[in-house]
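Page 42, continued from yesterday. The earlier attempt failed because a stray header line got pasted into the input along with the sequence. Redoing it now with the clean sequence only.
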Amino acid sequence: MDGEATGRARHALDAYLRRLGVPRPERADLETLARLQDRHLRTVPFETIDFNLGIPVRLGEGAVEKIAHRHRGGGCYELNTAFALLLRDLGYQVDLLSGRTLHDGRRAPLGVLGGHLMLKVTIDGEPWLVDVGFRWANQGPLRLRERGPQKDENGEYRILDADHGDVVIVHDGVPRVRLETRPRDPEDFAATLWWFATAPESPVTGTTVWASIVTGTGRVSLLDRTLTREEHGERIRDVLDDDAFPAACRRWFGIELDRLPTLPPLPADPS
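This time it went through. Structure tokens are written below.
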């Protein structure tokens, strides 16, 4: 990377930190990692709007630019590869891990192989699991070697051993992800990313839109036209028409839309 490209990359990572509202930390320790992960989940939404709109989705530096300069979020591939670059720039040892979802919040399908991406961050020889790209992600690092319950602001997690060195991440009693523990390269996810962006069977194309962000009182999630706000344990659901949808994206996720995604029809008026 030449000097000009290096300067652009550093400028984007500095803008990334400003988006998170975190000054450049002095130490690459566990406390800083936990703060960065929590701030990421509160400021950068998990969202799949570009898949719906047919806009190219990029990993790594392209995802950093999307987060830092376009003020957008992204899917797990985007958010976690971008966060990996930021963490490495701050001095952390980071590996990409490949997983598959076991439950999507509505049912328990076996997700596509390699359909989820998480991070292993090693600090003083201790590996931690970090995820900023999943609705049921832990809000703080999970100790990879721990097999007992690990309490988190998003619930209780357990890491169970599986065949072939894999582990299963259980959240509040529900198996969410089966995860390989061998490191992967970003290129290993390219074919699956293409499938997500183009296949009719993909969960993020067609008329489907997902978005989620942690708030001070709970979480706000979007699935197609349904916006769900979790506030102090209470759930409030709104069905969004074509005018309310972009307004909700702007208000809750900070996303400015120049065109509406393809959405399912509004439900029939019960009256």
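Notes: Residues 190-253 form one domain.
Reminder to self: strip header lines before submitting.
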